[in-house]
Amino acid sequence: IAFGFDPRKTFIFRNTVYMGDMYPTVVQVQRMLTLSAVKNTFGLKDSDNVGKAAFPAVQAAPCFSSAFPRVLPRLAGDPPLKCIIPCAIDQDPFFLLARNVAPRMKCCAPALLHTKFLPALKGAQFKMSSSAEGNGVITLHDTEQEVRKKVRKAFSGGGGTLEDMRAEGVNLHADVAYQLIRFFCPDDNLLAEVTSKYSRGEMNSAEVKELAADVVVRHVLSGWQARRAGVTDADVEHFSGIRSILL
User: Is the keyword Metal-binding in the record (predicted)?
Assistant: First the structure.
């Protein structure tokens, strides 16, 4: 809500609360999926709990407008609505299964827009995730001081010394602070300047980390935290209320 979604066009739900309306579509997806397909897609074993085999149908069901009969109401004979899903690549297997069953459900196959992982502070080979805080995570509730302290410890793509950086430049793909700037800085000219100078060793990692912290605080956290403070229980109830959002 604090990111600015339009309440007239947005429905936010929890599976445990909304399952009643969605359940017929979940069952339909379950009927179309075979256990072997789910096991092969997710690498499940016979020793895994049954919830792992059942969940893909629950995850896939919201791809189809039939899961939202009161939120996206359709008249008899109306074609199903199309769905586009922005997600990271780790969610792709769920929607691959959804695309496979869509024709048999006489529904439109969902389209996916793959987003990139935000790198963890420990290194670009890790994704920033609350489920893996040990790899270094900046949360939306962090203070400016906490952000700066965390970013100063972020993995650097530079050499061991300033002379090494000036001689060899920096591996921008591995440098977490630079990646934070690339993700969140709205000023393309500033990003181009940092890219040029840092890659040639004309900026050091401490300078880039301070700039990265500035960008995260100014362009992500400060505005979001102010808006989050203004979100009320009534706002949450409205966004999660079952009503038509077709304008």
Answer: no
Choose the CATH number for 7-115 among 3.40.50.300, 3.40.50.620, 3.40.50.150, 2.60.40.780. 3.40.50.620
Tokens representing residue 54 in the block? 């059942």
For residue 97, count other CB atoms closer than 10 A to its CB.
Answer: 22
Kindly report the backbone phi and psi dihedral angles of residue 111, in degrees, each rounded to the nearest multiple of 5, phi listed first: -100, 145
Q: Each residue of 127-179: pLDDT tens digit?
A: 998 888 888 999 999 999 999 999 999 999 876 667 777 777 788 999 999 99
Written as one letter, the residue type at 26 is V
* Residues in a beta bridge with 71: none
Report how far apart, in Å, the C-alpha atoms of 107 and of each of 24, 189, 197, 209 are: 14, 45, 51, 48
CB 178 within 8 A of CB 147: no
Instruction: Determine how β-strand 84-88 pairs with β-strand 111-115.
Output: parallel
